[in-house]
Amino acid sequence: MNRVNSCLSLISVLALIFVAGCGQEEIAEAFDANEQYKLETELIRDYLAENNFEEDTTDIGVRLVVTDQGGEQMAEIGDVIYFDFAGRFLNRNEDEEVIDTAYFDTTIFSIAEEELGVEDDNPIRFRPVVYTYSDDGWTLTQSSGGTGFIVGFRDGVTELLKIIGVGGAGEIVLPSRVAYGTTGTIGINPNQVIIFEIYLRRAE
């Protein structure tokens, strides 16, 4: 009977060790994710502070910056909107200085020509994105042109266009978890903070 109890006790201890080990791995993964987000948040705040930008944050953590208020006409639910964008990376250099000058994509040919060395003004690539505001909570839904948006881009553009007028401009700053995440994509590293410049051309 004692031997049976001893065996059962040993099995219980091993089971607890196994469960505890699994829990520690999960906690470690969660801690890594939280630590990455903390580092990205500090980087974003340093960027905003260095440029004297006010911090305005959406519910999912996208920072909004108004660089040009634009005219009195505002985009409204049901409008077809035309906007351009230019995406660039936000990083730190070896001296822990904030650097954000590397562009990776844009709908504006002059930026692509100057920053990316593009020579062909392709009218398919270099044209405003055309989307329509839906009536279900300001969600951007595709009308024509462009492609699907990552969640941070969709959220940031939606919120930014509530506060700038036609002809206005702003920036949306995306932590990696609402951009391209821990895997990245072609030309974009994992855990990459991204800035998109947004230019509201017209709404009709």
Can you put this structure into words, describing what you see?
It is a single chain. With 204 residues, this protein is α+β, with helices and mostly antiparallel strands. 33% of the residues lie in helices and 26% in strands. It contains three helices and nine strands. Strands 1, 2, 3, 4, 5, 6, 7, 8 and 9 form a nine-stranded antiparallel beta sheet that branches.
Please, what is the average pLDDT?
83
Could you describe the largest sheet, including whether it forms a barrel?
A: 9 strands, antiparallel
Structural class: alpha+beta
- Which residue ranges are poorly predicted, with pLDDT under 50 across at least 5 consecutive positions? 1-21
In short, what is this structure?
The chain is α+β, with helices and mostly antiparallel strands and 204 residues long. Helix content is 33%, strand content 26%.
Fold blueprint:
Layout (H helix, E strand, L loop, with lengths): L1 H49 L5 E2 L5 E6 L11 E13 L5 E2 L3 E4 L2 H8 L12 E5 L6 E5 L6 H10 L8 E6 L18 E11 L1
Antiparallel strand pairs: 1-2, 2-8, 3-4, 3-5, 3-6, 3-9, 6-7, 8-9
Describe the structure using short key phrases.
33% helix, nine-stranded antiparallel sheet, alpha+beta, disordered N terminus, 204 residues, 9 strands
